[in-house]
Design goal:
The complex is a heterotrimer of chains A (202), B (338) and C (121).
Chain A lengths: L7 H26 L3 E3 L3 E6 H10 L3 E11 L4 E9 L6 H5 L8 H23 L4 E3 L3 E2 L6 H7 L7 E6 L2 E3 L7 E6 L1 H16 L2
Antiparallel strand pairs in A: 1-8, 2-7, 3-4, 3-5, 3-6, 4-9, 7-9
Helix pairs in contact in A: 1-4, 1-6, 2-5
Chain B lengths: L3 H13 L3 H14 L2 E7 L4 E4 L1 H6 L12 H4 L5 H14 L3 E3 L25 E9 L5 E9 L1 H20 L11 H18 L3 E8 L2 H8 L1 H17 L6 E4 L4 E7 L3 H17 L2 E3 L2 E3 L3 E7 L7 H17 L5 E3 H9 L1
Helix pairs in contact in B: 8-9, 11-12
Chain C lengths: L4 E4 L3 H10 L8 E4 L2 H10 L4 E4 L8 H11 L4 E6 L4 H9 L4 E4 L4 H10 L4
Parallel strand pairs in C: 1-2, 1-3, 3-4, 4-5
Classes of the chains: A alpha+beta (202), B alpha+beta (338), C alpha/beta (121).
Chain lengths: 202, 338, 121
C-alpha cells in the first residue's frame, strides 16, 4: 500500500462525492438534452499506472478516445479520458440536438466529451469548495495502441489513476462511455488532504 | 539629507494601493493588447464588448457592433449549430471549445501569413467561457486564438509524414511495393479471406537467367530490365491486386477474391506478354522471360507463409520444367506423383 | 419522545451525514443499514418509525426497499435521500409511498423542515 492509495474512509468519501456530482450532472444534462437520463452509480477504482496501461491496451474495440486536462485550486489536477466503443456513438449529434450534417463525427465526440467532463467536474469541484479550469478537449489519433502510447508519453508522472465508469442510458438513444480520470501523484496527495478535511468534519 | 527608506516605503505604498479604476485600466489595456480575439455576448447572443484584436482584424466594420446580434455582425457563423453550442455554455455553466482541427475557422478573419499559407482565413481555436456577473445575468466570453501557424505547420508535417509512409512502402528501383509492405499486405489479405471465407490467390515469379543477363550486359541493364518488367506486369493488374518485389529478381502478386483458374490465366498473360516484348538497352535488343508459380488459399494452411511456400514450390517446378511457363501448386503436386 | 430511526445508505460517510443532520434528541435511537436487504430485515423485526433511505445501493436498492415496505404493509415514514435528483425519480419514489425526496448532500435545516412538515417534530 503506497502513500497514494486511498484509505477505506477516503474511498467511501470520494465515492459519495462523485455520486452526488454525478447525480447533479445528470440532472443538468437531462434538462439540457431534454430527455431522461438513467443513471447508474459510477464505479470508482483506483488503478496503478501499469495495470491501467495493460487493461486499456487489451480493449480491442475502443473506437475513439478524447482527452481533456483539468486543473483547480489546491493542486487538484489531472486529465480525463473518455473512451467510446463503435456501437455507442451512432446518434450523438441527435442526442446533442444538432443536425448530423452540422458537425463531423469527430466534433460530436469531442463535444459530448467536453460536456460530460466539465459538467461532472464542475459539480465535483463545487462539493470540495474548488473551481476547475479546462484545456480544450482533444481526440487522440485513432491508431489501435494510441491509448497506451499516450499514457506513456504523458507530461506528468502519475502512479495511480481513478477509473470512473460512467454509464449513461438515455431514453431513445443508446449512449455509453467510460471516463477515466488520470491524477498525477502530487494531485493525489492533495485530493487525500481534501478528503481528510471533509472526513474530519464528521 | 533625505530619508531614502521613507521615500521607498512611500513609493511602494502608492504602487501597491492601486485604485479600482487603475486596475480596470490595466485589465482593459491587457485585453486590447492581447493577440487573441475577445468577444463577449449576452444571453441573447448580442455583442456586449469586443477587443482591439477583433476590431483590427474585421474588415467590414459595422458602425456600431455593440448591441448587435453576433449572427448579424458575423453572418458567416453557422447560426443553428453555434446557438446550440452557446446554449450549452449558458445552461450547463461549462466552457465549450472549437478547434481548428475540426473546424478551420468560425470567424472569417484575415491572417498575417497571407502568402505562405493556402487558406484565406485565420485558423482558429475558439473557447466559449461562461461569465456570471453581479446581477446574476449570464454572458459568454468568446476567445479567438490565431493558430494559422500551427495549422500550416501541421499540414506540412502531415504531408511529409504521408511521403515518408509512402516511401517506406515502395521499392526504390521498381517503384512497386517493397517486400516488407507486400508481406504485411499478404498477412492482412490472408486474415480477411479466412475471416470472410473469400478466395485468395498468389503468384510468385522470377526472371529467367537473370544472373547471365547481368554478367553479359552489366548491372545497369539488369536494373533496366527489372524496371521494365515491373511496369509491364503492373499494366496487366487490377487496382486491388498487390504487386511487390520479393527479392532480387523475384516478384510476387496477391490476387484478392481470385480463384486458381483466374490466377493461372493472369500468370499466363504475364508470361506471354514478357516473352513477346522486346526491350532495348544501348541499341541492343534484349529478350527476357519469366517463370511463374501460382497457388490459391484452400483453408488448410496454418498461416500465410505457407501460401508463399506453395507458390514458391510451383515456381521452382516451372523452372525445372524449362522456364518461361506457369505452374500451379496443384500441377506441381501431380508432377511429383507422376 | 424520540421515534426509532433507521438510516440506510451504502456509504458510511452518507450515514454519518444524515445522523449529524437529525434533531439532537433523535440521535440516541438510531439504527443503520448499509444495504437494502439489511434494511428490510431490521424493518421486519423492529418497529421502525422513520426511515432515511438512499436509492442507489448494491443488491436491493432503495426502490426495492420501498416495494418491500408496501408488500409487508409496514407503517413507517420514509424519507428518500438521494444523489439521483431527476424529477422522474422523485415522482417515482413518491408513488411508492415515500413522504419526501431530499437531495444529497443532506442539510440539517432542510431535513428538519421536512420532518416538521410531516408532523414528526
Amino acid at each position: 500500500m503506497s502513500e497514494f492509495h486511498l484509505t477505506e474512509d477516503q474511498q467511501d468519501c470520494l465515492q459519495e462525492l462523485i455520486n452526488i456530482a454525478m447525480g447533479q450532472a445528470s440532472d443538468q444534462l437531462a434538462r439540457y438534452l431534454d430527455t431522461f437520463v438513467y443513471l447508474k452509480v459510477p464505479s470508482i477504482e483506483s488503478v496503478a499506472a501499469v495495470e491501467l496501461i495493460q487493461t486499456l491496451s487489451q480493449q480491442q474495440n475502443t473506437m475513439a478516445v478524447v482527452s481533456q486536462g483539468f486543473f483547480g485550486y489546491e493542486g487538484i489536477r489531472g486529465e480525463a479520458l473518455l473512451m467510446y466503443q463503435e456501437e455507442d456513438s451512432g446518434r450523438i449529434a441527435d442526442l446533442l440536438g444538432y443536425e448530423p450534417d452540422e458537425l463531423s463525427q469527430d466534433e460530436q465526440l469531442i463535444d459530448i466529451s467536453s460536456i460530460l467532463t466539465t459538467t461532472f467536474l464542475n459539480v465535483f469541484a463545487g462539493q470540495i469548495d474548488n473551481q476547475m479550469s479546462y484545456n480544450a478537449p482533444k481526440l487522440l489519433p485513432s491508431i489501435q495502441n494510441s491509448i497506451s502510447e499516450h499514457l506513456q508519453q504523458m507530461t506528468f508522472n502519475w502512479d495511480l489513476a481513478l477509473k470512473v465508469n460512467i454509464n449513461y442510458q438515455v431514453t431513445d438513444y443508446s449512449f455509453n462511455c467510460n471516463m477515466i480520470l488520470l491524477i498525477p501523484e502530487t494531485a493525489i496527495i492533495n485530493i487525500k488532504n481534501v478528503l481528510d478535511r471533509i472526513l474530519a468534519e464528521f | 539629507m533625505f530619508d531614502l527608506n521613507a521615500l521607498l516605503t512611500q513609493k511602494c505604498s502608492t504602487e501597491s494601493t492601486l485604485t479600482e479604476s487603475m486596475l480596470k485600466q490595466i485589465n482593459c489595456q491587457i485585453a486590447n493588447q492581447l493577440n487573441t480575439g475577445v468577444l463577449v455576448v449576452d444571453a441573447g447572443f448580442n455583442i456586449v464588448l469586443w477587443n482591439r484584436f477583433l476590431q483590427v482584424h474585421t474588415d467590414n466594420i459595422v458602425d456600431n457592433i455593440i448591441g448587435q446580434s453576433i449572427f448579424s455582425a458575423f453572418p458567416e457563423l453557422p447560426e443553428r449549430w453555434l446557438s446550440r453550442k452557446l446554449t450549452s455554455v449558458l445552461q450547463l455553466n461549462t466552457p465549450s471549445f472549437c478547434s481548428w482541427e475540426q473546424r478551420h475557422h468560425l470567424f472569417e478573419l484575415p491572417h498575417t501569413r497571407p502568402i505562405t499559407t493556402d487558406s484565406e482565413f485565420m485558423a482558429q481555436n475558439c473557447t466559449f467561457l461562461p461569465i456570471i456577473i453581479e446581477n446574476n445575468s449570464k454572458h459568454i466570453c468568446i476567445l479567438i486564438e490565431d493558430v494559422t501557424d500551427v495549422c500550416h505547420y501541421q499540414g506540412q508535417l502531415q504531408k511529409a509524414l504521408d511521403e515518408v509512409a509512402q516511401l517506406s512502402r515502395i521499392d526504390g528501383l521498381t517503384q512497386i511495393y517493397n517486400r516488407r509492405h507486400w508481406q504485411e499486405s499478404l498477412a492482412q489479405e490472408y486474415a480477411k479471406a479466412r475471416r470472410h471465407d473469400k478466395k485468395l490467390s498468389l503468384i510468385m515469379l522470377d526472371l529467367d537467367y537473370f544472373k547471365l543477363l547481368n554478367d553479359n550486359y552489366g548491372h545497369q541493364c539488369g536494373d533496366m530490365v527489372l524496371i521494365e518488367v515491373s511496369a509491364l506486369i503492373s499494366s496487366l493488374l487490377r487496382v486491388e491486386d498487390l504487386f511487390g518485389r520479393y527479392g532480387g529478381e523475384e516478384f510476387a502478386i496477391i490476387l484478392p477474391e481470385t480463384n486458381l483458374a483466374g490466377a493461372k490465366e493472369l500468370a499466363q498473360r504475364i508470361c506471354d506478354k514478357i516473352a513477346t516484348t522486346l526491350l532495348n538497352y544501348n541499341a541492343e535488343i534484349i529478350k527476357v522471360t519469366v517463370s511463374l508459380g501460382v497457388t490459391q488459399l484452400n483453408g488448410a494452411e496454418a498461416n500465410y507463409e505457407e501460401l508463399i511456400t506453395k507458390a514458391d514450390e510451383a515456381l521452382y517446378q516451372a523452372k525445372a520444367l524449362g522456364r518461361n511457363q506457369v505452374c500451379s501448386a496443384i500441377c506441381a503436386k501431380t508432377l511429383v506423383i507422376d | 419522545m424520540s421515534p426509532s430511526v433507521l438510516i440506510c445508505d451504502d456509504s458510511n460517510m452518507a450515514r454519518k451525514q444524515v445522523l449529524r443532520s437529525l434533531p439532537e434528541q433523535w440521535r440516541t435511537s438510531v439504527q443503520t443499514a448499509s444495504n437494502g436487504a439489511e434494511a428490510l430485515t431490521i424493518l421486519r423485526d423492529n418497529s421502525v418509525e422513520v426511515l432515511f433511505l438512499d436509492l442507489t445501493m448494491p443488491g436491493i436498492d432503495g426502490i426495492g426497499v420501498l416495494q418491500g415496505i408496501q408488500k409487508l404493509n409496514l407503517n413507517c415514514s420514509v424519507f428518500v435521500i438521494s444523489a439521483d435528483i431527476q424529477p422522474e425519480m422523485q415522482s417515482k419514489v413518491k408513488a411508492l409511498g415515500a413522504k419526501e425526496f431530499i437531495r444529497k448532500p443532506v442539510k440539517s435545516d432542510i431535513l428538519i423542515t421536512h420532518l416538521q412538515q410531516h408532523g414528526l417534530l
